Amino acid sequence: MTVFHYGLVKPRLTTLIVTIFLNETAGERPNEEWEQRLRDHSPEYRAFERRAESSEDVPEKTGTWRDLFLP
């Protein structure tokens, strides 16, 4: 039963939820007020925006928890 749930049901439910979300939010833009609040209160968000706007290569290590799990 566990194999059935985690092997078939859960992946399909996840796909369904993501598909519904993408269809419902198609064409919408982020709220400018919330973007500004993120910039004001989150140095990680500001660093994310800087990396997105720059044309530099992505560093091997990001200095976050992801370094522990991602190759």
UniProtKB/TrEMBL annotation:
Region feature (Disordered): 49-71
Biased segments, Basic and acidic residues type: 49-64
Protein name: Uncharacterized protein
